[in-house]
Amino acid sequence: MSNPFHTLAVSSQLVAIVMAAAGSAGAQSAPVVFQGFAHAPIGIATLHVDPARAALDVRGLRSTGEDGFAVKRDGATSWTARIEVPLGGAPPVNLVWSALADGRPIGTGLLRQNGDMFEMSGVFTGGTTTRTFSAHVYNNGRLVGAVGSQPPAASAFVPIDICRVFTDLCRVVAEFHTLPDGACMVRIAGARAVPIRLPNGTVVTGNELRLVEEVSPAGHYPYLGFDTMVIRSDAPSIAILSETLR
Question: How many domains does the chain have?
Answer without folding.
Answer: 1
